[in-house]
Amino acid sequence: MIWGRKLDRDDELASLRELAEGVHGVEALFDEALRLTWISPSIGRLTAQAPADCIAAGDFFAFLLHESDRDFCRRMARQVLDTGLPQDFELRLVARDGRVVWVAMHWRRRAGGLRLSAEDIQARKEAEYALLETVAELRRAQALREHYLLRSNDERQRLSALLNLIRLGILFIDHDRRVLYHNRAMLEIWAYPPATELVGSREAVLKRQAAHVLADPEAYFGHIDAVVGGRESASEEHEFVFADGRVVTDRSAVVQGGEQGRGIGRVWIYEDVSEARRTSRQLVELAVRDELTGLYNRRRFHEELERLLADAERRHSAVGLLAFDLDGFKPINDSFGHQAGDEVLVGLARALGRIVRRNELLFRIGGDEFALLVPDASIDELLELSHRLLETVAASRFCFEGDEVGVTASVGIARFPANARRGDALVAAADEALYRSKSEGRNRATVSGRMGA
Ligand SMILES: Nc1nc2c(ncn2[C@@H]2O[C@H](COP(=O)(O)OP(=O)(O)OP(=O)(O)O)[C@@H](O)[C@H]2O)c(=O)[nH]1
């Protein structure tokens, strides 16, 4: 029987060897001390080591296995020896040139030792590594995207807070003429209730509101069509007026970006300039008004004179100039003080303001000198006006320190084009006539005798 068993084992070994020579994977046999007793030639293909060298090395584990896997593999092999239960696991061999080769090992008990079948899984491991690398890459990309998304959300929040604080109205319209963004100031300027949400609304919705609140909606829509239809990427500042009197400006620009740089829409910026316009009007008024009497001053006199003469030249009409100066004004200053003189000037300006017509312009040229410009006036009308003026001045009475005082005026009359064709010559002609009134006794009007030149 013993012989018979030995014969069986030898036969088995022989046939196993024969089989193993031809198979692709590695087959190996170990004795009870875990010494390698035989290994198939295919180990050469895997590790470039000859079977005889593997056996001669003594310690299979130290000779062929990756350093990190040796202890584990020894432990498992011993376990198979002890328990008789087969074990499958994957680990790394190290080839002669130092290359690492992954193999799937199958250890099982056999009479007198262990049998190992190992299969090359390097290609699968590489595929797995590549897959893991791709997954890791994807995760990194996703993490990066999430990071940027978070940052862009933060950025958007910051921008939106900023845009809601500024006083400029901002409206962003996309290519389909829908609202993409607006800030709070835009709602205020266009008189929407504060919580109105316009994002997604069509331009037609905005036009309905505009028709409601603008002084001249049609003119404004014409402007919008011209800007949008024009080729300009940025529009000039345009001023328009609301029905409630507010003055607003708009500007717009195409926002670049999107596919092939065709622009992603148009941004409109609105500014309520009512206050600024009011202030600049007031400043202009201040510059052309006499501070004491509130009448137009010398500067405005010259502007209006030139304007009226140009107009009369075009229309072949006349312009009358009444230059007048108070008589006996200085003694009021001297007797009752400058303040009293001021009151006389203010009182007379008020009284004279009541006798001039809408188209006649009254000026304080300086000191106690005044002027009246009268468009389209005949000489008779100018004389008649001069007498009313003289009467008004003479009839004005003032009371200082219990004394009633008054002044008179001397008037010089000149006409365009009869006495002069230019502004400075007309002023000189009127002054000349005024001087004559003074020298001939005051409180009178004299018509210029100059010939127009
Ligand atoms: N209170 C006051 N006096 C002024 C002002 N501007 C000029 N005057 C004074 O007005 C006076 C003008 O002088 P005149 O024209 O010689 O005075 P007048 O007494 O009317 O003399 P005639 O024109 O020759 O009749 C001067 O005493 C100036 O100081 C002003 O704004 N307020």
UniProtKB/TrEMBL annotation:
Residues 317-450 form the GGDEF domain. The keyword Transcription regulation does not apply. Its EC number is 2.7.7.65. It holds the Pfam family GGDEF. The keyword Protein biosynthesis does not apply. Gene3D superfamilies: 3.30.70.270, PAS domain. Transmembrane segments: none annotated. It is an enzyme of class 2 (transferase). InterPro entries: Biofilm_reg_signaling (IPR052155), GGDEF_dom (IPR000160), Nucleotide_cyclase (IPR029787), PAS (IPR000014), PAS-like_dom_sf (IPR035965), PAS_4 (IPR013656), Rev_trsase/Diguanyl_cyclase (IPR043128). Keywords: Nucleotidyltransferase, Transferase. One of its GO terms (molecular function) is diguanylate cyclase activity. NCBIfam families: GGDEF (TIGR00254). This is Diguanylate cyclase domain-containing protein. It comes from Thauera mechernichensis. The lineage of its organism: Bacteria, Pseudomonadati, Pseudomonadota, Betaproteobacteria, Rhodocyclales.
